[in-house]
Design a protein that fits this description.
There is one protein chain. With 247 residues, the chain is α+β, with helices and mostly antiparallel strands. It is built from nine helices and eight strands. Strands 5-4-3-8-7-6 form a six-stranded antiparallel β-sheet, with helices on both faces. Strands 1-2 form a two-stranded antiparallel ribbon. The longest helix has 18 residues. The mean pLDDT is 85.
């Protein structure tokens, strides 16, 4: 069945939002396998409604209206309020990058990030970015409290169906058991070489809501014990605010 105009518009928005750079009409049409004339018409409408912006040379970036729609989700989720405040507190206490992410399918989606002043290197993903959940500390926190039968569905098909798929799932299952036992997860450069990450889960009344995490350069582990406790305390405060528990 052919995609509707609405579906195509949403796919275009998603592509532009995650590109990290302006995209040309030709690139958008080719990647999404949409006729250039159709893509042009959709982009014209999206630009008129300010969901997309154009620059010179002719290329498209995400617009202010798309940001407003995304910000509405953050307000409903509470990220723009109490979570933001807690991340600022965590960053101030540790002088380290902090972030909050949720699980969406096979990916961890970063909804908020706080960098310390003067940070000279990018340590954590940008807001709105998606990374494989099974590789990230925040993603592992979200996966650890899933029912075991649901775990495979949150690992990308290319990974779980690959030649090492069974071994990956077995190792991940063992690691997630340790995450549940100790109450936090780690990522030792699995996503970005030389960057360590640590995260703790946040619960609401229905279960895991998301995870609070920090990132730092490998070799800066001198305060790891303090950092672990600070992250866990931050997650515990947020859990309390959302009426959840960590059981």
């Amino acid at each position: 069945m052919q995609d509707s105009s609405v579906t195509r518009a949403l796919r275009i928005l998603d592509l532009i939002a995650h590109a990290g750079k302006p995209l040309t009409l030709k690139h958008i049409a080719e990647v999404l396998d949409i006729p250039r004339s159709t893509a042009h018409g959709i982009l014209r409408d999206l630009t008129r409604e300010r969901f997309v912006e154009t620059g010179e040379p002719a290329a498209y970036t995400i617009g202010i209206k798309a940001f407003e729609v995304g910000a509405a989700h953050l307000r409903v989720a509470g990220v723009g309020g109490v979570i933001a405040v807690e991340l600022v507190r965590l960053t101030d206490a540790l002088d380290i990058t902090a972030h909050y992410a949720v699980l969406d399918g096979t990916e961890a989606v970063y909804l908020y990030k706080q960098d310390p002043p003067g940070l000279g290197v990018q340590l954590a993903s940008s807001v709105g970015a998606r990374l494989p959940a099974h590789l990230t500390a925040v993603g592992k926190c979200c996966l650890a409290w899933l029912h075991p039968r649901d775990l495979a569905a949150h690992v990308a098909p290319a990974v779980r169906e690959g030649p090492d798929g069974d071994a990956v799932l077995a190792a991940l299952t063992d690691e997630l058991a340790k995450v549940r036992e100790r109450g936090y997860a780690t990522d030792h450069g699995q996503v970005a070489g030389g960057v360590e990450c640590l995260a703790a889960p946040v619960f609401d009344t229905s279960g895991v809501k998301g995870a609070v995490g920090i990132s730092y350069l490998r070799g800066a582990e001198a305060r790891a014990g303090e950092a672990t406790e600070q992250v866990r305390q931050t997650a515990a405060r947020l859990t309390s605010m959302f009426g959840g528990n960590n059981q």
